[in-house]
């Protein structure tokens, strides 16, 4: 697969003059040299979506893909929670439960978490920095189209394919289980297909990261400097740097695991192989948490001040804390391995760094709270999700600090406490920030407005469901309930039933979201004003809304060559043409 991708890249590099490429964002004719593409208009229908290299179209594709994955992963966990309402095995077999457990984790992290961030960043980073498009539009398209086959490979075990069963390794794929050692069913080809699908998603993320770094460094409007670069772009830049160091390591580890499984090598099937896999996996796995959470932090840092009526408090400290998290995230991986018997001196150093990384996260939290303090708060749906993000992130962060302590981790490791902590971050924070972004920018990519009442119902049901489900899991962990079990002792039944009720409340909330999102996209009231959130009243309009205003005024679908307009960010002064005189 790697050789094939290199061959494709070489062939594209041979026939393309990358730097002379002019994106046909406006759909009109583009004059230039022979190397430039000239088109009267975009293709329409299915051909448009299969061949597009426009960053906004690709952002939409990422969004649709990730929301489908979110639905699939959500339905998997609903089935698991219904099974867990009863202590014994009732609806699902233990092996199928393990299959759902494995695929749910991988789906939510690799097929939803990373792509939903790519949806926002592809659509809005060029608009925020005043670029025409991404630095490498075709590579951008290739990065997306690697994801659908990756998803099919990961889910292949659930399809009616003879002799193929779903992987049951859990999302961490610990060896020697995942290496097929023993008499279990883990030598089934379903595990190999899952590993290949994961490899594709990693290649996709790496290609996207290179593209974002190149775009932010080289394609910024001359008025957008490092001093006034918006906070969302800062978090995407940091995330892309983490991806460049983390995902290739995961790809290498997966390749070694595939060689063990199919060609008789002995990377992980010998003494010490299990510890080696954990070191390699968690060197990727913990930065992955920050790969997922930093851009949502950027969304909240961008959206929350808009509805607090003031600029983000301590912008520079938010940027510095973002960079600090990026650096420190590579020094905490072994806190997942405190119970493995590694050298106590090594454990102590990782405990210190794990405690230290809470500091920049706390800086962000206090900055968000201070931004709201004495502000002109407007409780719109995006703002509600931002506030929900902050509160859930505090709970998830504080519970994580306890796990950074070695003696406490030795007691709570592999209990439901870890599940509750992790899901407060992944669902309570990352997904909430994603919803805040979807509602905030809904007028831009649909041209319509959603139903506000349904949006608030979505928030409150999600907030109640999240806290009921995952706080109960924290309590289950304190009670000693181990995670990843399909059955349990009867004394845990009440707590599990409460968690199942919370999961069903979450499900109802997401059903309302889907209805509101689709129905409003098709039939919602059209937006006639380029400032639907009245950001101009507080001088908080940012570049993407300026672009949207021009789009409405000129009736140009996708931009094109425009005169310089005001570029405002969260972090600096509004930059106008007059400032250059």
Structural class: mainly alpha
Q: How would you sum up the global shape?
A: globular
Largest sheet: none
Q: Tell me the radius of gyration.
A: 24 Å
Distance linking N and C termini: 54 Å
Low-confidence stretches: 15-40, 556-568, 572-581
How do the SSEs run, as a string of H and E? HHHHHHHHHHHHHHHHHHH
What oligomeric state do these chains adopt? Answer: single chain
- Please count the helical segments: 19
Domain Cytochrome oxidase subunit I profile: 49-536
Region (Disordered): 558-581
Subcellular location: Membrane
Keywords: Electron transport, Heme, Iron, Membrane, Metal-binding, Respiratory chain, Transmembrane, Transmembrane helix, Transport
Structure description:
The protein is mainly alpha-helical and 581 residues long. It has 19 helices and no strands. Helix 4 (94-129) crosses helix 9, helix 8 (231-263) runs parallel beside helix 10 and helix 15 runs antiparallel to helix 17. The chain starts with a helix and ends in a 27-residue tail after the last helix.
